[in-house]
Structure formats: structure tokens, C-alpha cells
User: Fold these one by one.
Assistant:
Number 1:
Amino acid sequence: DDVLRGATAFNWDLPIGCRIYGPWFDCTTDMEVVVTALFDPLYVTIRVGLEDEWGYRYYTEGTDNLTFRFDFPNDRKYRIYVENNTHTEASVAGSYITR
């Protein structure tokens, strides 16, 4: 269903090799999360994903910007994360919605 359940913005500096997490939120298998992110500098590849309360991670990668929809495989708590596996410091700004 397309009912908006929550929206959260983020703006994080990402040191080299760093992963940053957002707050936990509850989700069920009938929900989805849509993440939109802009990266600086433009040429770095940043990983954006979800981690569940058991430590399983689901992610996508992009340069410059990305918009991605995640479906929830299980009824659990999840949190958004961004990860910089490059050799360049970066920053990421964006938002995610749950619906």
C-alpha cells in the first residue's frame, strides 16, 4: 500500500572506510522504504542500504546520486546506513520514506 508512514532526512560526513547508521524503525513485509541520496564528491561510489536487527544487510551502490526502493523481506526492525569504501572522504545528503 502507498500510504506514507514516515519520512526522515539525513546529512552525514563519511570518512574513508566508515559506515554511518540512522535510527531503528519497525517494518513489516507489506511495507517498502524509498531512499534518495546525493553524494559529494560526485565521482565516489557510496553504498546505501538497510540493516535488520539480526545484522543482515541489503544495499545498493551509486555515484553522484541514487534513488532506490527496498522491500522488506521480514517483519523486523531496520535501519538505514551509508558506507564509504573508497579512498576519498565524502558526504551524503538525502532522505528516506517508509510506506
Number 2:
Amino acid sequence: MEKTSGVEDKSAPFHPLSGRDNTGAHNSVTFLNCIADCNRHDLSRFTPFHMAGHSVGWMRTDTLPLLRRYDDVFDFASGIVSLAEHFEDCTSRSEALMKVARDLDAKDGVLPPWRDELYPVFADPTHPDFTPNGTALPLAHIIRSAVLFFGLPAWGVHLNGYVEDKNGIKVWLARRGPSCFDFPGKLDNVVAGGQPVGLSIDDNLAKEAQEEASIEASLIAQASPEGSISCTVETPFGLSVGTTFVYDLKLPSGFTPRSLDGEVSEFLLLSTNEVMEMAATTAKTLYFKPNSALVILDFLLRHGLLDRTPDRANIAAALGREA
């Protein structure tokens, strides 16, 4: 294991693991548990949220009383919450949602810490359009901090950065800084960020790679897109419906990531055996930010490192990958 510090690390120290063999045979069930924990939710506790005639999200039913004071913004009928029909375009819908979000944040404290990023709300979230001249225009833009409250789909980009030599593959991981709102001190992919309005996926990856790990544009341009991974899980703030666009990048052996935005406390270069062990036990010990553990499992799967795992086909299916 190699380690490089970005800022002072105040989180719990990393403890090397047992160094078991890398067949993955002893980890099959725990790999599946890790995936299951990222998809635990009960929609019976949620109410559908509609916009412009489309089902776009899920709201915790016990939070609906907070919205009834906004009778000019929301309609309540037939067990559904709908944004009022008189909001007829993206601009008016976005303004209405922003007003409600600011009010909920100030009066009720039911939103996570405010983050000034706008996320899109698409009529068909299975086919989001982040191309520079996209034709699938969003129904609305919503502040990132309100996405969970309304149970809206959100997207992000994650990068697996790795090096390879005669001894095999090693993976660069980032430890989240102590000031991060969610999962401070936990391990993350070397680059990870949300997908906001106004950037293509590739441009967002390039921006995040520069800010989080000092990976220059010429190097990140060599990253290969590897599809996406989705998960849906209940959180204290609402339903998280997330899709991660996954990239792999083979880094030069002499490259060392360096954080520019202060969100990473340190970077670790780990053997795949260490990474495999941590991914297998993260459901219990939470080494990783949970959705980042899925990206790591996917990397191990695609690079043949789980080929001897008895439940490989089930793991692939749970990740939405070909067996």
C-alpha cells in the first residue's frame, strides 16, 4: 500500500487487511450484501411526485404536511403530489421549486446542507440528455440540496484510476475530507462528482478530475467510458435515486493525484486484493462511500478479478452488467 496526503487527515487511520487470496470465494455473499445495502428502500412509505404529467420522483409520505402550505404550488389528488399545472415551462417550474426549497431549508431544516448546483429533472430519466446541444430539454432545474426531498433521479461521474505493472493492478482511491457532509473520512473513487446542469458528461469528468485529483485534460481524455450503475436507497433526507457514469483510466506509473479543491484528505494506492477485501466488508465496516463501493466492485468484475468468485453471475446481474 502506498499513501500520499493532500491535507491533514483527521479521520480514522487506514488499517491494512489480512491479505487473503484474491479468488473472492470467501466474499461472494458480502459482495451481494454490499450491493443490496445500496438498494434498500420501501416505496410503500413514499408518495409519487409528478410534474407536467410525468412521474418524476418519490416523496416521503410523512413529509407531505410540509407542502400543504404551498397550495399555489402543489396539487394533492389520488395519492399523488403534482407540481401545479399553471407552471408551464422549465423556468416557471424551476422558480417555484427554488422558492419552496429555500423556504424548507430556512423554516424546517429538512434539507441537507445547501449546495449551489442545479440538477435537471427529465421527463424520461432513463434517457437523460447531457449533450451540449441536447434535445431532451429538462422539465425543470432543481437545487441539488432538494433532490433527495423530492426523490428525483440524479446522476454523477466516477473515475477508476489505476496503474498496472508486472505485479498486477493497483487502484488509486481518495479519502473524503473531514468537512464533507456525507461520509466524511470514507474512501471514494479517485474522482467522483455530481452531474449538474450545463455540462456534458465528458466536460464534467474533466472538471472534476482537475479539481479533485489534478488530472490534466490531455490525460483525462484517455479515460474510457464503461457504462453506468444505478441504485435506489432510502436516506434520512428522502429517496436517493442515483445513476453513476463510470470511467476507467490507466494512469502513468509516476503519476500521483493531488487535490486542488480540498475535498480529499489523502490518496491511497492499493492492491486489488486490499480493495476487494474492503469492498466485501464495507456493508459492515463502511470503508467506502456506499455507491463508490459499487463502482469498485464493477471495476473488479470487468477486469476479471472476480472470475473465480462463485456468485460472479449474480454479482454482475445485481450491478446491471452482463454475466
